[in-house]
Design a protein that fits this description.
It is a single chain. About 35% of the residues lie in helices and about 25% in strands. Strands 1, 4, 5, 6, 8, 9, 10, 11, 12 and 13 form a ten-stranded mixed beta sheet that branches. The chain has a two-stranded antiparallel ribbon with strand order 2-3. Strand 2 and strand 3 form a beta hairpin. It is globular and about 60 Å long. The chain starts with 5 loop residues before the first strand and ends in a 7-residue tail after the last helix.
């Protein structure tokens, strides 16, 4: 059994970078090949042994709740039509041992505030945070990113942040960490800055959209108040945590697609379509065919 039993998914954002597609539909429900973004994140958490999925939602996010609910009419129709493979596929969206909870974030006050909204469901246990905008996949044949992080947390008991190096001209888009490299390959985080200007950034190590946090972070978030943009920043809460307990930066094995941007979303769509067992070979042929996009 995983040492982490709760995963928090902050999904209350408006998705303005994908308007008009997100005017009436949650950005987390945008499909990459044949699954919505949020399902990739939930499957990653489930693979890591996490069974309680907590969605911090907002207005117009009902489609997420419906997606992970039982669709009796659809299942009955598929069963009567003998489409048993599709029936199994629909039922696999929420396995029997997976619990889903939903809580509203009443105001858009930042990622830290979204995490605080889940405190009463998490309790005093360590928990994961997954941002669906970041579609993350492990190396072929290897564990997913969250499963790797759970292993690090199990070994150390510390909070763990997924990190990757980014170009200097992109550091202002991320929380940036700095600290000594440990023999195990982890970074003991000593400093963390939210969206610094390149000339003020302590390093190029950026926090990606995966976290494992000890419950003590809730008090640190509250104490941090409002930070960059007048929002309650998760980064500020983690920075407060550094003064009291170890926080590790983990350079994960895998790839991250920034599906909060149009170009990242397109990259994920193309690369995951090429890897898809059903459509991959035909898609690759079409890309390389005379007159095709890659011809």
């Amino acid at each position: 059994m995983s040492t982490i039993q709760h995963a928090v998914f902050p999904v209350a954002g408006l998705g303005t970078r994908f308007l008009p597609a997100t005017k009436a539909s949650p950005k987390e429900m945008l499909p990459v090949v044949d699954k919505p973004l949020i399902q990739y994140a939930v499957e990653e958490a489930y693979e890591a042994g996490i069974r309680h999925m907590i969605f911090v939602t907002g207005r117009n996010k009902r489609a997420i709740e419906d997606h992970f609910d039982t669709a009796y009419e659809l299942e009955t129709e598929l069963e009567q039509a003998g489409k048993l493979a599709l029936l199994d596929l629909v039922r696999s969206v929420q396995p029997d041992d997976m619990q889903c909870s939903y809580v509203r974030q009443p105001r858009a006050l930042g990622l830290g505030h979204a995490v605080l909204c889940a405190e009463h469901l998490v309790g005093k246990s360590p928990f994961a945070v997954l941002l669906a905008d970041d579609l993350m996949v492990g190396l072929p044949g290897g564990s997913g990113v969250m499963a790797q992080m759970v292993q690090v947390h199990t070994q150390t008991g510390a909070s763990v942040l997924a990190v990757q190096e980014v170009p200097w001209d992109q550091v202002q888009r991320y929380g940036i960490i700095d600290g000594p490299q440990k023999p195990e390959g982890w970074v003991r985080v000593e400093r963390m800055v939210e969206k610094p200007k390149p000339e003020l950034a302590p390093s190029r190590l950026a926090v990606a959209g995966r976290y494992i946090l000890n419950a003590s972070v809730f008090d640190r978030i509250r104490q941090g108040g409002r930070g960059v943009g007048g929002e309650i920043q998760l980064t500020d809460g983690i920075a407060g945590l550094l003064q009291h307990e170890p926080v590790l930066g983990y350079a994960y094995q895998g790839k991250r697609y920034d599906c909060g941007s149009k170009i990242g979303f397109l990259e994920a769509t193309v690369e995951l379509a090429l890897q898809h067992p059903e459509v991959g070979p035909d898609f690759a042929r079409w890309l390389r065919a005379p007159g095709g996009p890659a011809a």
